[in-house]
Specification:
This protein is an alpha+beta fold and 171 residues long. The protein has helices at residues 2-16, 25-56, 68-85, 106-123, 160-163, and strands spanning 64-67, 89-93, 101-104, 129-136, 147-153. It has a three-stranded mixed beta sheet with strand order 2-4-5, with helices on one face. It has a two-stranded antiparallel sheet with strand order 1-3. Helix 1 packs antiparallel against helix 2 and helix 3 runs parallel beside helix 4 (106-123). The protein starts with a helix and ends in an 8-residue tail after the last helix.
């Protein structure tokens, strides 16, 4: 895995060091695009490596604290280049829960939500919209706050006959 991640992280880290303040707007956009594309590629590499770990029975799920606002920023940074390329409006509604600290695996949660958003982009027509909502689902109980994440889009949706296939293993 380090054979893939190390050079990719080097590209990202070096791109971050580029002094964009002295650049024109178009040059800054190129650097931003480089960073977004490299981050998207790193995400895909991590997904492929995760599949190998799942197949080997060695995937570890972490439990660590993180703010919902930080998670939503990561998701926006990942999704925005995709939505802009199709002129899709991306809205994230999480203000009421933004400062809540969750205890979970932020990378896995980001991965699931990003996959759903990427899928929404794929099937949403140009000039459509995608909405991500994060809402409190009920009162805090024993230090736990139930939170619901939802994604809605203006794509065609899933055919009724295909709904029962969603949770079947992929062939």
């Amino acid at each position: 895995s380090h054979e893939l991640r190390t050079p990719l992280n080097s590209v990202i880290n070096n791109a971050v060091l580029i002094d964009a303040e002295r650049m024109s707007d178009s040059q800054r956009q190129i650097v931003d695009s480089l960073l977004s594309s490299a981050a998207a590629l790193r995400h895909r590499v991590n997904e492929v490596l995760d599949v190998r770990m799942i197949e080997a029975g060695s995937l570890t799920i972490l439990s660590e604290p993180f703010r919902i606002s930080a998670l939503m920023k990561t998701i926006r940074d990942m999704a925005e280049p995709l939505t802009l390329s199709k002129n899709i409006e991306l809205s994230i509604f999480a203000d009421d829960v933004a400062d809540i600290v969750l205890q979970s695996d932020p990378a896995r949660l980001e991965q699931v939500i990003t996959n759903l958003v990427t899928n929404a982009v794929k099937f949403t027509p140009e000039s459509g919209s995608i909405e991500i909502r994060v809402e409190r689902e009920g009162p805090e109980t024993s230090g736990k706050i139930p939170v619901r994440f939802s994604i809605a889009d203006t794509g065609p949706g899933i055919l009724k006959d295909d709904l029962k296939k969603i949770w079947l293993p992929f062939h």
